[in-house]
Amino acid sequence: MSSSCQQPWGVSVDAVAPYGAPHVGAGFSSDVYARRLHEATTATAAAGLAALIVTPGYDLRYLVGSRAQTFERLTALVLPIGRAPTVVVPRLELASLKESAVAELKLAVRDWTDGEDPYKLVVDALGRAPVATAVTDSMPALHLLPLAERLGVTPVLATHVLRQLRMIKDHSEIDALRKAGAAIDRVHARVPDFLVPGRTEADVAADIADAIVAEGHSSVAFIIVGSGPHGADPHHECSERVLEAGDIVVVDIGGTHEPGYHSDSTRTYSLGDPDPKVAQQYSVLQRAQQAAVAAVRPGVTAEQVDAVARGVLAQAGLADAFVHRTGHGIGLSVHEEPYIVAGNRLPLRQGMAFSVEPGIYFPGRWGARIEDIVVVNPYGAEPVNHRPHELTVVPLPVGG
Amino acid sequence: MSSSCQQPWGVSVDAVAPYGAPHVGAGFSSDVYARRLHEATTATAAAGLAALIVTPGYDLRYLVGSRAQTFERLTALVLPIGRAPTVVVPRLELASLKESAVAELKLAVRDWTDGEDPYKLVVDALGRAPVATAVTDSMPALHLLPLAERLGVTPVLATHVLRQLRMIKDHSEIDALRKAGAAIDRVHARVPDFLVPGRTEADVAADIADAIVAEGHSSVAFIIVGSGPHGADPHHECSERVLEAGDIVVVDIGGTHEPGYHSDSTRTYSLGDPDPKVAQQYSVLQRAQQAAVAAVRPGVTAEQVDAVARGVLAQAGLADAFVHRTGHGIGLSVHEEPYIVAGNRLPLRQGMAFSVEPGIYFPGRWGARIEDIVVVNPYGAEPVNHRPHELTVVPLPVGG
Fold this sequence. Notes:
Two copies of one chain form a homodimer. By secondary structure, chain A is α+β, with helices and mostly antiparallel strands. Chain A folds into two domains: 30-166, Creatine Amidinohydrolase, Chain A, domain 1, CATH 3.40.350; 168-394, Creatinase/methionine aminopeptidase superfamily (Creatine Amidinohydrolase, Alpha-Beta Complex), CATH 3.90.230.10. In chain A, 32% of the residues lie in helices and 21% in strands. In chain A, the strands form five sheets. A six-stranded mixed beta sheet of chain A has the order 4-3-2-1-5-6, sandwiched between helices. In chain A, strands 7, 8, 9, 10 and 18 form a five-stranded mixed beta sheet that branches. In chain A, strands 13-16-17 form a three-stranded antiparallel beta sheet, covered by helices on one side. In chain A, helix 3 packs across helix 4 (141-151), helix 6 crosses helix 7 (201-214) and helix 8 (276-295) packs antiparallel against helix 9 (302-315). The longest helix of chain A is centred in the middle third of the chain and has 24 residues, at 171-194. At the A-B interface, helix 4, strand 6, helix 7 and strand 7 of A face helix 4, strand 6, helix 7 and strand 7 of B.
């Protein structure tokens, strides 16, 4: 049995099941990264800024395919307008650049050793200071504050600069999201077998973890098994609560699919036939989710989609039961732009990918949520998840 | 088999082995957190600042025992001088506060829902703006930049404010580090059985992952198996390289031990008897590590300890082979202050805990490193690792 070497910061996937494919290089061809670097530089210039600085995280992975995870030692991709990009990297981490497209792209690499001032190297790569820069949204204060001091100008968030680029998925990204969606659908198809009264939420979560990897993901991203009253907490994870006949169970699960794109799908299950009131309220939720998906098309705003889901629930007196936003973008990150939320007037565009996941929550009693990932196409929304949206009734064991 | 519910963002530990103890609450008693909050507030005032703001990460865990991992929605502990602390938290995450000491400490909680401005809630908790604040070093730019704008003053890093508090471990923390050290020693005792020519580094890493959990850790933190030329890259993780007779193998491993403290120990192994030149150079490394540990005592500076290790290697002509700092602090985080590095004139004090891990690296050929975690006591250093420091010769299979 071989372990997945690229996951040393968690338990190896292959220690659970021998399915995980080892990562090979950056994920996409270097042409893809060259195009992204070009577009990021163009967007930076268009924002009136002189440079973009990206430390490890999803933006770095998006731009050069690097999975670097350094924290206290600065690693940074420096993209100045009108100068060649430079990667500033601790000498210790030089070898890890092999896993990215940095070498194939022939980017300048400036390594540093403990005792050197890496922020000075960033300013050198920029050619001068003060410089108006955008920084990746995950840059920690540890690096941002000293860097801002050296730059002489408070940076702005690259979120705004990279927004369009990161939000509009290209064909290879959409294909990756479809594959991830199909994989999590296969897991949901198996979930009823795991939901047996007498087992704990944690037992079910362990089976789901195995299934997420077995069905083709390279790793587990998250598992929520919210049974009975726990279903009323949208971010409950799992617990030692024992499943009982009659429970409504929210199962919200996702994994990472090579080359790093995420699945995320929620279905709600009923252990035995549901109470008629529950079934009635669930049916309103199902209409709300369906209406929100149907509302998606280019030009509609993110908040309009949220309002559609909320409107259906409000008409049935369930407005107060829906305590979170309708959805979030997805890609290399599980949660990214666009957020489908009140106040977000962003017009949807072809290629955007996000969740549509209204829920209803009754504290101390039960909850339900239905979630598909959809991709905006010229005519509307293409869901990447296809499991039935009905409350799935899991038959109780006979004579149990 | 039950899964470890507190690890939904990675593969469950219990999916690997049924040993992981479920986390229970915050880790220490609420008295411990009350004292830490008091001392953090005192240190903030002493630094001439009006408030400390802590988003999820090690500082939040240290101060209130919270393991929150929210990113795009702001969770923040706000500690103003002369006012009661407030926890600003997305309503979705309210339930997760149960896992922390926030309720027992009776801290004010201000929850917010999507669409509200959480940065305004922080300013409200402070009572006014502009306010000179310290922020946790892991606060992402995503929150730091809008917060800085609302505060009207650029924050400073809380690293400086919390340094003494986080660096000086109390008895319960030292006890946790000793337990973690004993657990990783038990893993190293088993490593020779895993190192068989014909197996890959990844095979060995998978066995080590299982052993780290089996020997009492709640999760794997990192695994480096650097064989032959890979040993010359200090941050190599593992690969499909097949072990060969004659390989020198660097094994640098660590895990998390409840309530969240880390082990980290490196030993170097030789598959069969080493070349005499290798043995001779390794013996210099062993003397360097031993001399550095012997140099540790209160009042000695961090850079002096680094210089001792470097000096022993330099005298033998091996200065260029030692390409990284001598060590790093350890606790809730694998890498934290104090850093044992040139330029760090910090005087060591009783209760500090850090690694002493010189290494020698010969690119394309081999490398070696020896690492113990030590705790400063009134007289010198107490190592928490006790495996032999010699190059451990693993006998080759007979007739293999």
